[in-house]
Amino acid sequence: MKNKGIIIFLIVLAVVIIAVIAGDYLSGRPDKSAPNPFAYDVNDFKNVPEELIHFTESKNFKLGFEQATSITIDSDKLYVTGDKKLQVIDLSGKLLSEINLPDEPKTVEVYNDKIYVSVNNQILVYDPNGSLLNEWRNSDENSMITAISALENNVFVADAGRRKVIRYSLQGEKLTEFDGKADEGVVHGFIIPSPYFDLDINADGDLWVVNPGLHALENYTEDGNLREHWNNTTMQTEGFSGCCNPAHFTFLPDGRFVTSEKGLVRIKTYKPSGEFEGVVAAPSKFKDEGEAPDIATDSQGNIYALDFDKKMIRVFEPK
Amino acid sequence: MENNKTQNRRKFIQNGVRLSLLLSLGTVTAAALRKVTTDDYVWQIDPFECTQCGRCATDCVMKPSAVKCVHAFALCGYCDLCGGYLKPDSINRDTAAENQLCPTAAIERRFIEEPYFEYHINEDLCIGCAKCVKGCTSFGNGSMHLQIIHDICVNCNECSIARVCPSNAIKRVKASEAYLVKGDFSRKPKA
Fold it and tell me: How many CB pairs below 8 A link A and B?
């Protein structure tokens, strides 16, 4: 009888121990915890009404790069950089040629059969066969070249590190530079909190520069005089949010702006006046907190997004 | 003969004591050297692995948490529109409580020059919830990040936050390199 009591006590003790261990195992594990009471919630801004989405993803193709860095289109050929290489790809995704580069490229521009690539903040000029034609030296250790665009005898270079736009001749002679200040006494010009500083030239030959800290696109003369600008700050779909957006932009053949944003990763179009038009790709198309895709457009008005997170080029065509 | 025997015994005992003392001294010296040359380990958060899940605020045995936000000023853009300071789509860019993201108002915004602002973390108010870290990482440069503060942390054998961390961002590091502050420490490339 005495032994029976001890056995019952031991069984109860064993059950209690097992229950405690199981309870401890099941509670508090990463996948069993309560929802985050301090969640930073931007889900409301990720939802885009279907009627605002004016493009559809028609195809995509995987890149041969581990880490792609930039994309541009010239004569309906894609030029993509990354992994110390530049690849020329046709619009169906077929690799046409490849140029080895001395180091990691940052950005690329093609104009008049010359390829301008920024490598280690130097600008290397190649012909379409991959022969190095010229090398524009830049000794400023604060430089961080993030965009190049060329027209006629000018090559404009966006330097995020120095917060300046530099104008070179096609031969590489530095002609002038400007910092976006409206006047001598003005404290700030381009506000570049992070290394996103894009510029491009539209079909009319107008130079547009992003002022990312102001969420603005600014149109300058070649000497750096501000002609016009527009901006739109809001986390809502029609504007730009965060410290530095749009991260990238380009133009459709009819002069509309195409913008790509970081934070809330999305691609949108704006009319030439700056008025919001519609969405190309909503945040749901991209990885949460992913990188802002670099973008390019072809002559048909299709948009090519270089998705750094998915390592692919994604093609969006008008609906 | 008897005298020699006594002397030998005494010598033996003396030698034994000397040897014991020598061994003790050697042991103490070795222990001290070991203490000096080897490192203790403490818990720390790898900011590049952190997913800002909020559990540092809720699961630390210290109340408030030993985890605090730290600010790597070298990485900060000093933005007026700071994703770590302002609520998403805040009404205004100012210090009004309705615009502040931090639930305990632990971030101080100081004007530097137009249009730049500096953001300081008040460690006494910070609860390590990582809301600001999420905002800064998503919309800024990621200069705000979490660290375990070692004059608050009691260095539990099994860290209660590490146990529930969904990304295994909390790990043992050498006490001599107890902080993994962004800017000083960079994500090592994956092999």
Answer: 90
**Separation between Cα atoms, residue B138 and residue A177, nearest integer Å:** 32
Q: Which residues contact B33 (CB under 8 A, 6 or more apart)?
A: none
Q: pLDDT band at A28, cuts 50/70/90?
A: low
Helices (H), A202-263: none
Cα(A166)–Cα(A157) distance, rounded to whole angstroms? 5
Question: Nearest CA to B181 among B71, B78, B53, B51?
Answer: B71
Cβ atoms B44, B174 nearer than 8 A: no
When pLDDT is cut at 50, 70 and 90, the band that residue B153 belongs to is very high
Distance CA A170, CA A155 (A): 6
Homologous superfamily in CATH for domain A49-318:
TolB, C-terminal domain (2.120.10.30)
Segments making up each domain of chain A, as ranges:
1-33, 49-318
Q: Mark yes or no for CB contact B54/A39 under 8 Å.
A: yes
> Which residues in A lie closer than 8 A to residue B134 (C-beta atoms)?
40
In chain A, residues with a C-beta closer than 8 Å to the C-beta of B113 are 187
Nearest-CA distance A28 → chain B (Å): 6
Interface ipTM above 0.95: no
- Torsion over CA of A179, A182, A185 and A187, rounded to 10 degrees? -60
Largest pairwise CA distance in chain A: 106
Instruction: Provide the token pair at A119.
Output: 């490598």
Whether the Cβ atoms of residue A182 and residue A170 lie closer than 8 Å to each other: no
The whole-model pTM stands at 0.82
Tokens at residue A185, please?
Answer: 């006494």
Q: Which of B86, B105, B181 is nearest to B143 (CA)?
A: B181
The CA-atom distances, in angstroms, between B88 and each of A270, B132, B170 are 23, 11, 28
Closest Cβ opposite residue B53 in set A36, A193, A243 = A36
Which amino acid appears at position A233 of this protein? T
**B166: nearest CA in chain A?**
A30
Edge-to-edge strands, sheet with A174-178: A145-151, A154-159, A164-169, A174-178
pLDDT, average across residues B73-93 = 89
Among B78, B103, B113, whose Cβ lies nearest the Cβ of A187? Answer: B113
Cα–Cα distance measured from residue B126 to residue B69, given in angstroms and rounded to the nearest whole number: 7
